[in-house]
Write the structure tokens for this entry.
Amino acid sequence: MTDSVMTASVTAASAATVLITGASGLLGLNLSLSLQDKTRVVGICHQTHLQNTPFELIEADLTDRQRLEQVLNSVKPDAIVNCAALAGLDRCEENPELAQRINAEMPGWLATWSNNNGCRLVHISTDAVFDGVTGGYRETDPTHPLGRYAITKLGGEQNVLMNNPDALVCRVVFYGCSTSGKRSLVEYFYNNLSAGNSVNGFTDVFFCPLFVMDLSNILWRMIQRRLSGLYHVVSPECLSKYDFGVQVARTFGFSENLIKPISWRDAGLRAARSPNLRLLTGKIQNTLGEAMPDQAAGLQGFRKQVEAGYPTYIKSFVKMV
Ligand SMILES: NC(=O)c1ccc[n+]([C@@H]2O[C@H](COP(=O)([O-])OP(=O)(O)OC[C@H]3O[C@@H](n4cnc5c(N)ncnc54)[C@H](OP(=O)(O)O)[C@@H]3O)[C@@H](O)[C@H]2O)c1
């Protein structure tokens, strides 16, 4: 893409309406908050009722295709970022039909609508489409999902790219502040370690999480560049969940001795975990011409947010009913 074409698409995207599904979730809410001063944001939430957000909100059950299309036809977005999902591994095992509908079928409906209406689609997928046996996965590597969550998320990727070949699919993993204060692994470590509680940390599950605000900024740049196809959008630095906890402790000056190293196999979890989800980031780094943030940079960003009172700010959007 030439510079002049790129500038034109940046300008077009800046004036655009971006519809963000899952706007009450960990990624969707942080992304909506980070984009709302750059463009018009319309968020969709469902069972979590929000109030006083600095962006527009619509409540809708996206498993209802008619309702989804009614919302799309009334908002007429220029771009959609699909962050809605049944994202809990164990919840997907317990509700396989719901997981199939929201994680696999609904993204395909968004893809059909966006393809027919000249709308950009960014679909958020997961590192868990791989079984984690070897690690070091590229976008071109074969997938092998373990468990209902991963199977349905892979189905979502396939339905999106089949129904809209220009869509952008991002496999991500991230952490940050949520409305519940406990959706994210960083909140689990921060909440417990700051209270002096001991916690378990898996030494045999490896991942490459990005701080959600860094991910939000990268997604925005990808939208502006009108990228399409499949990308791994994770940190280039992979670490175990135990080591992540240790880094959280060091970032805030908490005692690392509170973190007990254990195997995920001893934790009594229902859904299988992929042990090594190291995803390679060469494609996105080459395309954007910049390095993805490492763990120290991301956790410093999280620390600054905590010190600025962001956890309380984000909870303030939840309407008590
Ligand atoms: N968290 C991670 O580290 C991680 C890792 C890999 C991939 N991902 C992917 O990243 C995306 C965002 O994950 P997240 O952690 O932000 O998820 P989350 O916090 O669990 O939020 C899920 C969102 O989906 C919405 N949703 C669920 N069912 C819906 C329905 N029937 N109709 C409308 N909205 C519905 C929820 O709305 P209500 O709460 O209002 O019902 C909520 O806003 C997902 O695609 C997930 O698979 C996440």
